[in-house]
Design brief:
It is a single chain. This protein is mainly β and about 450 residues long. The protein has a domain of about 130 residues: Methylamine Dehydrogenase, Chain H (7 Propeller), CATH 2.130.10. About 5% of the residues lie in helices and about 40% in strands. Strands 1-23-22-21-20 form a five-stranded mixed β-sheet, with no helix packed on it. A hairpin with a 4-residue loop joins strand 25 and strand 26. The N and C termini lie far apart (about 125 Å).
Length: about 450
């Protein structure tokens, strides 16, 4: 049987079109074809890797593009949870109120030492028990100075962006170490009042903790994830621990942003790292690390920790924690026997139950804590607060000024090491102030 040549061509034409379509590359979503290339090596001319090869490369983060040699992804290390600290179950202790505070120190009424229109933040007392290290700023720009509470004289040591962290005084060097925020990130600097020296960069947070036995400051670096190091006034850097920080549970918890804080015990044996939802104890002698169970916070998750403060003798660690109870709780961890106490204060005045417990500060003998309890008054749109003092050994407390209410609350408090004076920021609605109270007996 014979066919006409014309009909033969018509019959073959669809088959030729099918093969021609199959030979053209199909564009994947997100892949652009270079239709203007004159090099003879355009994306449209390059085949994809064989399907079998792609199946073997399942660990790759994305589908390999044309002209790209597929590479195996680095396997992620197994994340081992940190062990929970071996702390005894918490004991709830109801504090007893003493109307006649015969067993407590007596304070003078607060007096204003210095005033400005932008506000103050108190970092610490200097060892001479006469000067304070303070910051002042308007939220964008600030200065770091010393303040003589006896004369009101201020000596400026540095200027910086008004960030949330506290500077640290180094007495041997007679200067301050602080964090500045630059376009490149966070930078650690030292100033002796005459010259500012950059010491280290790539900090993971703005938090600093002083090594009380030397002229060094601990901080966290982002260049080595979780790297906890100390820096001295000439920029020499040392690891706090001597073991590898990234081996299983030995890793110092990863940190980033301003949420993480550090607190070093005065005896240098313990370093605390904490943020709003987690708290870690790092033993700098054994180099072990564990996580403190903050308790259950109901549907919101774990408990929240607000502030951590070491007693001067390093035995106690005070923590303000909020759990399921909407009222913040003052927790005391006894580091000698790992007993945890949850303290409650059955108050009957208008600031209880408080919306927050703020500004706890230890007495120099490590027996007492000064703290404020505050509550927002919607009618006057201001916070009113009371100042309490408690004995952590006898579980007694009293109201320092029963007839006095602080508006709009009390800022950070510091107690001089000789026990003679307490300083705190006592702002009003229109101005910033620093006040002092003398310890009369």
């Amino acid at each position: 049987m014979t066919f006409n040549k014309h009909y033969t061509f018509v019959w073959l034409l669809p088959i030729m079109l099918v093969f021609s379509a199959c030979a053209r590359p199909i564009a994947e979503p997100g892949i652009e074809f270079d239709t203007n290339s004159t090099t003879g090596n355009s994306l449209a001319q390059q085949p994809y890797p064989p399907i079998q090869q792609l199946k073997e490369e399942q660990l790759q983060a994305s589908y390999p593009g044309p002209n790209v040699t597929p590479s195996l992804a680095t396997a992620l290390p197994t994340i081992v949870p940190l062990p929970t600290c071996d702390i005894k179950p918490p004991i709830e202790i109801v504090m007893s109120y003493e109307e006649v505070p015969s067993n407590f120190p007596v304070f003078s009424e607060p007096t204003i030492v210095v005033t400005n229109d932008v506000g103050f933040s108190i970092a610490e007392w200097l060892p001479d028990n006469r000067r304070l290290l303070i910051s002042q700023g308007d939220g964008a720009f600030g200065t770091i100075s010393t303040l003589d509470v006896t004369t009101g004289e201020m000596v400026e040591y540095a200027q910086r962006r008004d960030v949330s962290n506290q500077p640290i005084w180094l007495d041997e060097a007679q200067g301050v170490m602080f964090v500045e925020v630059t376009t490149e990130g966070r930078e650690l600097r030292f100033s002796n009042g005459q010259e500012v020296t950059p010491l280290a960069s790539e900090l993971a947070s703005v938090s600093l903790a002083k090594d009380t036995s030397g002229e060094r400051v601990a901080t966290l670096f982002s260049s080595e994830l979780g790297a906890l190091m100390t820096v001295d006034t000439i920029g020499q850097i040392e690891f706090v621990t001597t073991i590898g920080l990234n081996e299983d549970t030995k890793r110092v918890p990863s940190s980033g942003g301003d949420g993480y804080h550090l607190a070093w015990s005065p005896d240098r044996n313990w370093l605390v790292q904490y943020d709003g939802e987690s708290l870690y104890l790092i033993n700098t002698q054994t180099q072990n690390i564990c996580s403190v169970d903050l308790g259950d916070y109901g549907e919101a998750g774990r408990g929240n920790v607000f502030g951590v403060h070491w007693s001067p003798n390093s035995r106690y660690l005070s923590m303000t924690i909020q759990r399921q109870n909407p009222i913040p709780e003052l927790n005391i961890l006894d580091m000698e026997n790992m007993d945890l106490s949850i303290l409650s204060f059955p108050l009957d005045f208008e600031t209880w139950p408080p919306e927050r417990i703020g500004s706890p500060v230890w007495s120099p003998d490590s027996r007492m804590i000064l703290l404020q309890t505050g509550k927002h008054d919607a009618e006057i749109a201001r916070t009113q607060a009371k100042l309490l003092i408690m004995n952590v050994q006898t579980h007694q407390y009293t109201n320092v000024f029963p007839d006095y209410t602080f508006f709009p609350g009390i800022g950070r408090m510091v107690w001089s090491s000789n026990g003679s004076t307490v300083a705190y920021s006592c702002h009003t609605a229109t101005e910033g102030n620093i006040c002092i109270m003398s310890v009369l007996q």
